Amino acid sequence: KELGKNRCVRFDASMNQAMVRRQAIEQALRAELEGGHGLALHYQPLFSARDNALVGAEALLRWTHAELGNVSPLEAISVAEDCGLIVPLGYWVLRTACRDASRWQGRHAHPLRVAVNISARQLGDPQFLEQVMDILRAEKLPADLLEIELTETVLMENMEAGAYTLHRLSQLGIHLAIDDFGTGYSSLAYLRQLPMRRLKIDRSFVRDLPAQEHSRKIVTAIVALAHGLELEVTAEGVETLEQAEYLVEQGCDVLQGYAFARPMPVQQFVELQASH
Ligand code: C2E
Ligand code: CA
Ligand code: CA
Ligand code: CA
């Protein structure tokens, strides 16, 4: 009984600690969005598997805070989703990414698309469509240079209300991609019903290539499925040249990963364009 009681107390203490951290993150995030300077986007270059050409970049959230240190995007997004700050944070990300992408056009031989991650409550926001249109107009970014990445979970949670928004976004010329494909509720219904342009093979299927047969079979199947539906395929988390070679052989269209480049500040991304 004594022990049980102790364990219970310890459990409460760690629960409490987690809650205190989430509250601290919420407060700090609120302050950032009201005019702080700790939020930033890094850009991870995307390369064509066909000819190694640079084709764009994925925008990834970075946050350094005086007391909290570096807060990972997964933790920041999770807190923001719970407390509703995801909506203003999401618009900050979208606006910053479109602004940066608009500025980096014209420096490269061909246009470079920017990919932005969107979470469930953002897609569910009734203002989402209008806000995206406003941002593209204000930042002067052509719609077809914006790609929106949605996970299977985000799609499942917004199946009805989200479908209209996604069709409108697609009609405007915005590209839609399914992120982390194969890790969520893999309902093939949305592949048929929604105007998707790309599947991104999750890092977990790339990690054990080319040695692991199971991963090889999944990658082959995803590429066949995607190409059968006239979707492009991106492989993420490509860390070795061996993996890259295998993915090119399998017919992947775009490669992303540490083997090529890590996420970097926008200035560095602009410098990288000059050498590609
Ligand atoms: P994600 O969308 O799947 O993004 C890819 C993640 O894999 C990034 O982690 C990237 O840095 C990492 N990565 C890229 N190449 C490699 C590689 O070769 N090896 C390994 N081990 N990792 C690689 P990051 O930046 O920590 O972001 C984590 C997740 O946080 C993202 O996963 C995405 O789900 C979420 N996220 C990041 N920024 C945003 C944002 O602005 N909005 C939303 N809603 N989510 C975001
Ligand atoms: Ca992503
Ligand atoms: Ca991903
Ligand atoms: Ca992922």
How would you describe this structure in keywords?
single chain; alpha/beta; 276 residues; binds calcium ion; 9 strands
Structure description:
With 276 residues, the protein is an alpha/beta fold. It has helices at residues 2-33, 73-83, 86-104, 120-123, 128-139, 152-157, 159-171, 189-193, 203-206, 213-228, 241-250, 266-274, and strands at residues 39-48, 54-65, 69-71, 113-117, 146-151, 175-181, 198-201, 232-235, 254-255. The longest helix has 32 residues, at 2-33. 37% of the residues are buried. Ligand C2E is lined by residues 44, 60-61, 72-74, 77, 93, 117-119, 179-180, 203, 236-239, 256-258, 263.
Chain-wise SSE layout:
Elements: H1 2-33, E1 39-48, E2 54-65, E3 69-71, H2 73-83, H3 86-104, E4 113-117, H4 120-123, H5 128-139, E5 146-151, H6 152-157, H7 159-171, E6 175-181, H8 189-193, E7 198-201, H9 203-206, H10 213-228, E8 232-235, H11 241-250, E9 254-255, H12 266-274
Parallel strand pairs: 2-4, 4-5, 5-6, 6-7, 7-8, 8-9
Antiparallel strand pairs: 1-2, 1-9, 2-3
Bound molecules: ligand C2E and calcium ion (3 copies).
Short structural summary:
GO terms for molecular function: cyclic-guanylate-specific phosphodiesterase activity. It contains 12 helices and 9 strands.
